[in-house]
Amino acid sequence: MPVHGLTRILLCLLPMWRVLIPVSSYPQHVPCQLMQRTALCNDRKFSSVPAGLPANIEELQLNHNDIETLRNNSLQLYTSLNTLSLACNSLDRLESNTFKDSNLLESLNLANNNLNIGYQETSLALRKLPCIRILDLSENKLNNEMVSLLLQNLTALEYLNLSGNLLRRLDETSFRDLQQLKDLDLQRNIIFEIDGAFDGNSKLQRLNLAFNYLPCLTEFHMTQLVVLNASHNSIEWFMSTQELSDTFQLETLDLSHNKLFFFPFLPSRSHLRNLYLSHNILRFYEHMANNVSFPNSTSAVEFYNLQKYNNNITAQLWDDNLHGDISALEILDLRGNQVAYFPQGFIQKMPSLSRLQMSTNCLETFNLTSEQFSGALYELDISNNRLNHILADDTTLAALGNLTYFNLSLNDLKRLPIGLFSSLQSIRSVDLSFNNIDICHSDEAEMSTHTLPGCVDWKNIISLRQIYLKGCSLDRIPTSAFTGLSLTHLELSDNPGLAVQNSLQSLSSTLQHLGLGNTQIKDLDFSSFQRLKSLNLSKNHLPYLPSSLQNTDLKVLDLRDNRLLTISSGQAYALASKLQTVFLTGNPFNCCQTEWFRTFETTKTVNMVGQSNIKCEDLFQLTHRVEDSRSFLCLEAGESMLWYILLFVPVCVSLIGISIIVLLTFKPKLLQNSIKKRYLKPTSY
Ligand SMILES: *[C@@H]1O[C@H](CO)[C@@H](O)[C@H](O)[C@H]1NC(C)=O
Ligand SMILES: *[C@@H]1O[C@H](CO)[C@@H](O)[C@H](O)[C@H]1NC(C)=O
Ligand SMILES: *[C@@H]1O[C@H](CO)[C@@H](O)[C@H](O)[C@H]1NC(C)=O
Ligand SMILES: *[C@@H]1O[C@H](CO)[C@@H](O)[C@H](O)[C@H]1NC(C)=O
Ligand SMILES: *[C@@H]1O[C@H](CO)[C@@H](O)[C@H](O)[C@H]1NC(C)=O
Ligand SMILES: *[C@@H]1O[C@H](CO)[C@@H](O)[C@H](O)[C@H]1NC(C)=O
Ligand SMILES: *[C@@H]1O[C@H](CO)[C@@H](O)[C@H](O)[C@H]1NC(C)=O
Ligand SMILES: *[C@@H]1O[C@H](CO)[C@@H](O)[C@H](O)[C@H]1NC(C)=O
Ligand SMILES: *[C@@H]1O[C@H](CO)[C@@H](O)[C@H](O)[C@H]1NC(C)=O
Ligand SMILES: *[C@@H]1O[C@H](CO)[C@@H](O)[C@H](O)[C@H]1NC(C)=O
Predict the structure, then answer these.
(1) pLDDT tens across 307-366, in order?
(2) Cα separation, 654 vs 207, whole angstroms
(3) What is the residue with the minimal CA distance to atom 2 of ligand 7?
(4) How many CB atoms sit inside 10 A of residue 446's CB?
(5) d(CA 19, ligand 1 centre) in Å
(6) Counting Cβ atoms within 10 Å, is residue 391 exposed (0-12), middle (13-18) or buried (19+)?
(7) What is the 3-state secondary structure (H, E, C) of 169-214?
(8) Does 452 contact ligand 7 (Cβ within 6 A)?
(9) Which atom of ligand 10 is nearest to the CA of 534?
């Protein structure tokens, strides 16, 4: 009996003990990290909201836990909360009274959960949040019906993230109650139709519709919108309502990665500054207007709004004046389209244009004089077109006083206007790679003034820092080619057989990156290149590393695809102390001289790119990974194949001997029999 009584007392004490422990141990054992009024409880395998946090916390982060249901009482201790984050749990519902005491909650992140399961109950919970301004419901497998219910009565909402859900169609009921909405992220849904969905959201400023299935955006009339991102859809037409006399607030429009045939029909008044149209199939059609070659071509297309016949739109296709207001444009990105020319006066309509990105289009000639770019132009990228001509006069070039970056690579240029670069006062970076140009000899440029020379010249352009001349079929660089320049980058790779002579020495005090890959360069003296940080010597048949490399400060060195057998330990040591990245694959290294590899490997600051693909050859010309080279049988330097044979022959001979002796000892009969069989055949008398 007394024993029983004791057990009972103990059993009663146990729950008390359990209850007391968390309370008494606070604050020593707070389950989460606290920072002022924020509790960070991310990634802790919690299956419910932890108790035992200070009651006055204002922010609670519970991302990446295992909470499945947010219970009615789970937040009752924390009535001061204004921010709650429950992203990446397995939440399928919030019980309807979860927020009954959370009057201050303004920001709620429920991203990446399973709210599609318990959305009905969850919607009741959300309705108790009169102050909620910020709500993230992204990645919850929510469809239209679920979203409508969840958003009911959230009248204070300003920021809403619905990305990565299953929305298909948006109409006027979708966001009806959200009169305060400013920022709406709808990317990565399956939206294919929008019909008056945002008419009630008069404060909406940022709208992201990227990665959906929209076939067109017509009748665009959201005058208050500042940023519209509709990239990565299937949009063939973008047309704003032209009749509106209001000025649109639109500043950024992203229609990249769509199927636009025509330049978008922009609002007739706007502040549009950034227009992203890359990766469409857009071109200009001015040549089609009133052209006798196309007598029957349609000149207008009409769009019928099938639901309410009151807003048919007609577009005059060939009239390139209908682009709308582009007068404030600063960035125009047209990469990857089919533009062959600009309509007359088009460039002049953009007096603030600072970046024009035209790479990968169909331009054949480019007349800078007739286009009349503004002096604000900073970046001009016309790479990867079919340009064979660039035309410009001195006055035009002198007006481009801000042009800093000029990319002409991947064209068919053979000639450039005289003094193209020397007239550009701010030019820093010129890419002429993959053209057929030549570099002028000192007197050539002067001789051929007033005619188009077949060579480029950039002597004494003090602003110039970067020149790219990859794959220009250059065979020689005149000694004086770079005099008066302070280049930091020079790219000469892919000019096989290039003779650089002494031209590079004048750059030795400034050059930081030098590309000499695939030039068949032999030995070059790098000892005066004190600032060199990155050097590309790949594909050059180099049999050994230039010794002058030791004295440089290289951080990146590309030695791929050469004929290096080894790297001397002195060089490896000197390089390893400074290098950060080294490329060494594709060399026939000797497996027995791989000390350099250990040096690089043990220096933790060096990254050997593709380390496990660095191969070496052993004495029998078998290929191994240098990584495994510790396991090869190697001979000291100076030893020859003969030693190998001398070592090998006695071993083999003794092995054979031993086998014979063993055979004879254990199976003498076998031998006798075979001898008998062969030589002692019974003869017939
Ligand atoms: C939600 O709004 C509707 C009107 O849109 C109103 O009738 C209803 O009472 C509101 N419900 C709550 C819970 O506030
Ligand atoms: C919306 O959520 C997605 C996924 O959770 C995220 O990648 C995106 O950045 C969010 N949008 C904004 C505007 O914060
Ligand atoms: C538009 O959205 C896509 C996808 O999120 C993003 O990559 C792109 O940078 C956005 N565009 C702009 C102008 O912000
Ligand atoms: C008519 O179209 C042809 C073919 O595209 C073009 O070469 C020509 O310049 C155009 N004529 C006019 C007046 O634009
Ligand atoms: C253009 O239209 C006229 C009258 O409709 C027709 O006779 C002619 O064959 C058409 N031309 C072409 C090239 O289609
Ligand atoms: C729009 O087009 C439809 C179909 O052709 C037509 O019935 C309707 O009258 C037009 N509406 C207006 C306002 O022009
Ligand atoms: C380039 O444009 C200027 C000015 O419009 C013009 O005078 C010149 O003829 C054009 N050059 C060529 C080759 O079309
Ligand atoms: C060139 O750029 C500077 C600085 O960004 C700017 O102040 C100046 O107005 C620009 N020049 C022209 C002609 O736009
Ligand atoms: C020039 O354009 C080409 C092709 O678009 C690109 O690969 C290259 O990196 C650009 N050059 C520079 C210096 O940015
Ligand atoms: C070095 O030049 C070669 C030949 O042009 C090129 O393939 C390689 O990518 C360059 N290496 C680095 C690190 O850029």
Answers:
(1) 554 455 666 666 656 678 999 999 999 999 999 999 888 999 999 999 999 999 999 999
(2) 85
(3) 370
(4) 12
(5) 42
(6) middle
(7) EEECCCCCCCCCCCEEECCCCCCCEEECCCCCCCCCCEEECCCCCC
(8) no
(9) 13
Ligand 8 binding pocket includes 376 (Cβ within 6 Å): yes
Choose between 446 and 29: higher pLDDT.
29
Upper half-sphere CA count for residue 121 (Cβ side, 13 Å): 16
Say if ligand 2 is within 6 A of residue 109 CB: no
Contacts of 419 (CB under 8 A, 6+ apart): 394, 397, 457
Q: Is the Cβ atom of 384 under 6 angstroms away from ligand 9?
A: yes
The Cα-based distances of 389 to 133, 230, 364, 437, 458 in angstroms read 56, 35, 7, 12, 19
- Answer yes or no: is the C-beta of 562 below 6 A from any ligand 10 atom: no
Which segments of 546-623 does DSSP mark as H helices, in order?
Answer: 569-576, 595-602
Q: Can you give the three-state secondary structure of 438-476, one letter per residue?
A: EECCHHHHHHCCCCCCCEECCCCCCCCCEEECCCCCCCE
Q: For 180-231, how does the pLDDT look when each residue is reduced to its tens digit (9 = 90+)? A: 999 999 999 999 999 889 999 999 999 999 999 999 998 889 999 999 999 9
pLDDT for 682 equals: 47
pLDDT of residue 302: 63
Mutate to test the pocket of ligand 2, among 88, 141, 142, 185 (most ligand atoms within 8 A of CB): 185
User: CB–CB of 165/147 below 8 Å?
Assistant: yes
Least Cα distance to 101 among 120, 77, 122, 124 occurs for 77
369 lines ligand 7 (CB under 6 A): yes
pTM of the model: 0.84
* Long-range CB contacts (within 8 A, 24+) of 618-621: 618/591, 618/592, 619/592, 619/644
The 3-state DSSP class for residue 320 equals helix
Name the residue of 219, 309, 311 whose CB sits within 8 Å of the most ligand 6 atoms, as the mutation to test its pocket.
309
Query: What is the number of the ligand closest to the CA of 402?
Result: 8
Please compute, for residue 98, the number of CA atoms within 13 A of its CA located in the half-sphere on the CB side.
Answer: 21
Question: Distance, CA 290 to ligand 5 centroid (Å)?
Answer: 15
